[in-house]
C-alpha cells in the first residue's frame, strides 16, 4: 500500500526534496452576495455564484500548483501543457488534500492551517468539524516526486489506527471519529 510519505526523499539519504502546503479561496463575501440573490428570490443567481466561486478556487489552486512546478521549485520549467492536459493531470506532482482518499483525516487541516497561519493570511477559517469557511476554499499539500500519484488509503485495522493516534498524540476515540469511513473494524465493539 502507498503512503504520501513514499513521495518524499528519506531524511537519511540527504536528498534535496520538498513538500509544500497551500490554502486558497474565492469565497470571501460570497455568502453576502448569495444572500442578496436569495433575498430577491433569485435562487439561480445564488447557485451560479456558488458554482463560479468553486471553479475560481479550483483554478486558483491549479494555477498556484503550476507556478510551484515551473517557477518556485522549478522541477518542470519547460512544461507546456494545454487545458486538456491540465484537466487530466498530465503533469509531474500531486496536490492531495486532507479529508480526501490519500489523506482521509480531516483534522489534519488544523496542522496545515497552523503551519501557514491561514486565518490571518487568507481569512479562511475552519469549523469545529474541519469544514472550511467561506465555501469555495481549498487547502492541501504539494508533492513533486516524479512517481507521485493519487491513491486511496483504503481500510485501516485497529493496530494501524492506534499507532496513528499515538503518533498524532490524540486519543484512539478521537482518531476513529475522523477516520470512520476507513475503519476495518467496529470501534463500538471494544474489547
Descriptive report:
Helix 1 packs antiparallel against helix 2. This protein has helices spanning 30-39, 43-72, 83-87, 108-116, 118-122, 158-168, 172-179; strands at residues 19-25, 125-126, 132-133, 137-143. It folds into 2 domains: 4-153, Vitamin B12-dependent methionine synthase, activation domain (Cobalamin-dependent Methionine Synthase, domain 1), CATH 3.10.196; 155-191, no CATH class. The chain has a two-stranded antiparallel sheet. A two-stranded antiparallel ribbon has the order 2-3. A hairpin with a 5-residue loop joins strand 2 and strand 3 (132-133). It starts with 18 loop residues before the first strand and ends in a 12-residue tail after the last helix. The protein is built from 7 helices and 4 strands. The chain is mainly alpha-helical and 191 residues long.
Tell me briefly what this model is.
The chain has helices spanning 30-39, 43-72, 83-87, 108-116, 118-122, 158-168, 172-179, and strands at residues 19-25, 125-126, 132-133, 137-143. The protein has 191 residues and is mainly alpha-helical.
Number of strands: 4
Q: Largest sheet at a glance? A: 2 strands, antiparallel
CATH superfamily of the largest domain: Vitamin B12-dependent methionine synthase, activation domain
Provide mean pLDDT, rounded. 94
Q: How large a portion of the residues is in β-strands, by DSSP E?
A: 5-15%
* Low-pLDDT runs: none
Order of helices and strands: EHHHHHEEEHH
Q: CATH architecture of the largest domain, please?
A: Roll
Cα-atom Rg, whole angstroms?
19 Å
Largest beta sheet: strand ordering: 1-4
Structural class: mainly alpha
- Which fold name is given in CATH as the topology of the largest domain? Cobalamin-dependent Methionine Synthase, domain 1
Number of helices: 7
Number of domains: 2
Keywords: Cobalt, Metal-binding
Organism: marine metagenome
Domain AdoMet activation: 1-188
Protein name: AdoMet activation domain-containing protein
Amino acid at each position: 500500500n502507498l503512503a504520501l510519505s513514499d513521495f518524499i526523499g528519506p531524511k537519511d539519504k540527504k536528498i534535496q526534496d520538498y513538500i509544500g502546503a497551500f490554502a486558497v479561496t474565492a469565497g470571501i463575501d460570497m455568502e453576502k452576495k448569495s444572500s442578496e440573490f436569495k433575498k430577491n428570490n433569485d435562487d439561480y443567481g445564488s447557485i451560479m455564484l456558488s458554482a463560479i466561486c468553486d471553479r475560481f478556487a479550483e483554478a486558483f489552486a491549479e494555477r498556484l500548483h503550476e507556478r510551484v512546478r515551473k517557477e518556485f521549485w522549478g522541477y518542470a520549467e519547460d512544461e507546456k501543457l494545454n487545458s486538456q492536459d491540465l484537466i487530466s493531470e498530465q503533469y509531474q506532482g500531486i496536490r492531495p488534500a486532507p479529508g480526501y482518499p490519500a489523506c482521509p483525516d480531516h483534522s489534519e487541516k488544523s496542522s496545515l492551517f497552523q503551519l501557514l497561519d491561514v486565518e490571518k493570511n487568507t481569512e479562511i477559517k475552519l469549523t469545529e468539524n474541519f469544514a472550511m469557511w467561506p465555501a469555495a476554499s481549498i487547502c492541501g499539500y504539494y508533492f513533486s516526486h516524479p512517481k507521485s500519484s493519487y491513491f486511496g488509503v483504503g481500510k485501516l485495522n485497529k493496530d494501524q489506527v492506534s499507532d496513528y493516534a499515538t503518533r498524532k498524540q490524540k486519543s484512539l476515540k478521537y482518531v476513529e471519529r475522523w477516520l470512520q469511513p476507513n475503519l476495518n473494524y467496529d470501534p463500538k465493539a471494544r474489547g
